[in-house]
Design brief:
This protein is mainly alpha-helical and 176 residues long. It folds into two domains: 8-36; 74-170, no CATH class. The protein is built from seven helices and no strands. It has helices spanning 5-43, 74-85, 87-90, 98-103, 110-115, 134-139, 159-170. Helix 2 crosses helix 7.
Length: 176
Amino acid sequence: MKPRPRVRHIRRYNRRWAGQLARSSIWSLLLATALLAGAAAVAGCGKVFTPEVGGPLGAECNDTDSDPGVTVSFQRDIQPLFDESCASCHTPEGRSPIGLQVGLFNVSTYTSVRAGGAVRGQREVVPGRPCASGLVQKVSLFPPFGARMPLNGPPFLEDDEIQLLHDWIAEGALEN
């Protein structure tokens, strides 16, 4: 068989050409990128874009008590609210205790409310800080996580009922 020197010569030439092409492509890419960045800066594309999205959807939360002259009682005000709106899912006796089974949050007693659930634990009710309390967040208009409670709502808690929970926690979430 005859050796094929021309093929070797062509292969060497192709390898050399491919290397030169790769090096020139990198430089071309860098040059093109620099030119585009320069053009974008000149055209004003380097400015920070802040879209106008409107105001916040919900009111800002405030940790202060709305009526410091009125004391909110757990037994008189909060427990009946829990019994009416939350007990069907968050008590062992509830007709569909999914909130108790999944989240382990029980509203049947003061001690169980203060113990919290599986997700937030004692952050469910943070005495003196209703805005940091998961309970107030979950019943408010736009909860930062998960679905708004009660899960079978509407109807949801009325604004005055949410304010009652808020004020009870702002007053220290006492067992009174």
